[in-house]
Amino acid sequence: MRAIKKAKKLIQNDPNSEFSRTLSQLILSLESDVEFQIKDLYSLSLEEFEFAMEIMYEWRIDRHYMGKAKIFDAAMHAESLRKE
């Protein structure tokens, strides 16, 4: 299971835990470009810290693929305009 999907389940199952709070803030920061206190990651256990790193890694990959999808859409749109 992907880390992002696991994080969703963790947050839904125990939204009040310190780990869920930190994950929620991290995800909101990644999505909305709001500030995130990096020191909050250091209060996590090693396992939780590594999980947070997995989320950031997957997020970065997903953004790359979203960027590719957007450029593909733009190219398809431009091609369709040329054919008209």
Structure write-up:
Helices cover 81% and strands 0% of the residues. It is mainly α and 84 residues long. It has one domain (3-83). Helix 1 (3-13) packs across helix 2 (18-32) and helix 2 packs parallel to helix 4. The chain is elongated. The N and C termini lie far apart (44 Å).
Describe the protein's topology.
Blueprint: H1 3-13, H2 18-32, H3 39-42, H4 46-83
What's the gist of this structure?
The protein contains 4 helices and no strands. It is mainly α and 84 residues long.
The helix count comes to 4
Please give the domain count: 1
The level of helicity is: over 70%
The helix/strand order is: HHHH
Distance between the termini: 44 Å
Q: Mind summarizing the main beta sheet?
A: none
Anisotropy-based shape: elongated
Low-pLDDT stretches are: none
Radius of gyration, taken over Cα atoms and rounded to an integer in Å: 17 Å
What's the pLDDT, averaged over the residues?
85
| Fraction in beta strands | under 5%
Which key phrases capture this entry?
84 residues, mainly alpha, 4 helices, elongated
